[in-house]
Amino acid sequence: MQQPFATLAEAASALRAGTIGSRELVDAALADAGELDPLLGVYVTRFPEQARAAARAADARSAAERGPLHGLPLAVKDNLATVEGPVTAQSRVHDRDWWRGLDAPAVARLRTAGAVVLGKTTMAEYAMGRPDPAHSFPVPRNPWDPERWTGGSSTGNGAGIAAGLFLGALGTDTSGSVRLPAALCGTTGLKTTYGLLPTKGCVPLSPSQDVLGPMAVSARDCALLLAALTGQPQRPAAPEEARGLRIGVPYALTDGPGITEECRTSFRASLRRLSELGAEIREFDFPEFGSLLAVNAVTMLAEAFAVHGGRLAADWDGHGRGFRRLTAAGAVLPAHLYLRTQYSRERLTARLLERMDGPAGVDLIATPTWPAPARPYAQEAAPGDELNLTAVWNPTGFPALVLPMGADPAGLPLSLQLVGRPYAENTLLGVGEAFQRATAWHLRRAAPDPRYRPTPLRDPDSAGAIEDPPVPSATSTVDSRTSHFADTLAAVGITPGPADLAAVQAVAHALLKAGEQPAA
Fold first, then answer.
1. Of the residues 153, 218, 266, 270, which is catalytic?
2. Annotation marks residue 177 as catalytic
3. What percent of the chain stands above pLDDT 70?
């Protein structure tokens, strides 16, 4: 590896001081990508010539002209527009002329602050589903074990930061797509408050839940990126940032089934460390969890079909199986269920805020980010599949920060999630920085062997292959409504084959069952 710095903040300081040039960092990042990208599947597209040209321009600027991200090489998820190349959203059928030659406003803000765009990173197709081996896009691999998943959907960002191919990136999050790759790859990521950052120039998935967020090595790095993205000065984090904060823990979830013992042990150790830093750890009831999980899934798939249904009907086979099956399930959800879900969403969020602000309230909520380490691609089921601790926060719009908190016996990362009220990003990042000053998990860097040849992905229709839609659990019994699914899909121009139809039915049935349960 040629990357000379451990964190983005260190690199930024050296660049502003002139002790290293942007061209050196860009050349190192491109060399590292040339060595490791064939294994890890980090990039969809690299921009070597444009990045070198931008680095030369950065090196020619005077000290007075240098912005907060002066000369820093960053990566951008490939559902965001950049002037250097087309958006693919990792889909064979996406219109390559969409926003061609333009920067998404968020990308433009990073560039105005001095950043250099290295390339566009891999992702789940349209930010949902697993890789389809029948498609030609790179398969993202976890740098800690290339046989394992990175988490989705900002897959390339998580893998690239963990392996040191770049120190920061811009991702998106609709049900955990910044936080899950950061967690499973052992990096830091911030889901921002809904509406804080512009989503123009970003291919939508679920417009009422989509947010952008920075991913990097540390909380301090994420704060540096967020300051550029919002145009607000970076607030220095004080050493006593956690002192006096009330951090609530939903012990019924974190001590319950579904969380591996290694994850639970690391989580408890993290709580002790936060307590040592001055935070007050208290129990916090979270009865809204199951209902918010259903709200996220119903909203995401209904809106995904509204956005992508026409394209799906026009070219069903051109889309990957993971994406098309999940999106088609949104077509069979009745309108009253979606509307009821939005009513529940507002009520549940208001209740949660009321309790956080009450006499026994809390400033932040802490959980593991994911209940287990990254699963192997070949593993059909894994501990914690039904305990999605990231998706519940997208319907609320609350910000959430994820931080490395430990590792299992095999060295696979485990992650802490801290959630705050809307627009509490500075508090989250300050506590995160204090936590990381007292720990070193975020400074671990994976060292994958570029000679390793991972096992090809199984066909998703073969026995034992992974196919785990991000939906709440429900009985597999098919009631009378499922017999109408094929007719409903045909009415919108979709005629899936037997395997596709069975998968759509399973997802839709789970959503109908979950969505019709009384809200907590």
1. 153
2. yes
3. 94
